[in-house]
């Protein structure tokens, strides 16, 4: 995970929490369990967001503000979900509808319908089908791209990188019948070259992780997000809803992040890649 500067004490004006979820389930497969919250916890967290006075806005509103467009409302927040788990339709969507909250779902196209046995996620993973993805799109959920096979993009050579970034968008357009423009980097990993390739492929924004708040001054090609995990306790989540407990992007990439990328690239060249999840 990318290293960031130390957190700040107290709320920070202009901090925009972009919450990152994966699965919302009671009995997740072991590989995704550390990045899963229960339906009860998720409902409680949505209640905390609303009760805190945060105003959840569509991702496109944040991106527009970052590009010098209409300003965000005070105390804005964004909800995002990665990968495309089937529980989004069964569990997440009804709660979003109840609270009238917008969200963006970044989908790994090779995993739709569970994917093949050699697909991006372990066999038995419960993923959305193509038909369900269309239903979510019709219900107003913004669908975004999350590559075809969920690789670490910053260690890929040029050809595979272009395919992962470009084909994902074309596949989603075929499923939905319209272009999709929001992208998220698997594992949060990107680099200057990766971000350039994403722009060239026609995506208009890209979400990272960074374990930080975003802001109107953040980079729309490296939107900072706060990952909600199984061990994210109430106090920490409440702190995030106050705009405290994490740094605010933009900030430079740290030495540890650059070193971590170099380590993973070396392993990839030696054909012993680092096995990242989520």
Automatic annotation (TrEMBL):
Single Gene Ontology MF annotation: hydrolase activity
Localization of this protein: Secreted
EC number(s) reported in the record: 3.-.-.-
Coarse class of the protein's main subcellular location: secreted
Domain NodB homology, chain residue ranges per copy: 75-278
Record field: transmembrane: none
Keywords assigned: Hydrolase, Signal
Alphabetized PROSITE patterns for the sequence: NODB
Gene3D superfamilies: Glycoside hydrolase/deacetylase (3.20.20.370)
A matching Pfam family: Polysacc_deac_1
Domain of life: Bacteria
PANTHER family: POLY-BETA-1,6-N-ACETYL-D-GLUCOSAMINE N-DEACETYLASE (PTHR34216:SF3), PTHR34216
Name by which UniProt lists this protein: Polysaccharide deacetylase family protein
Species annotation: Streptomyces wedmorensis
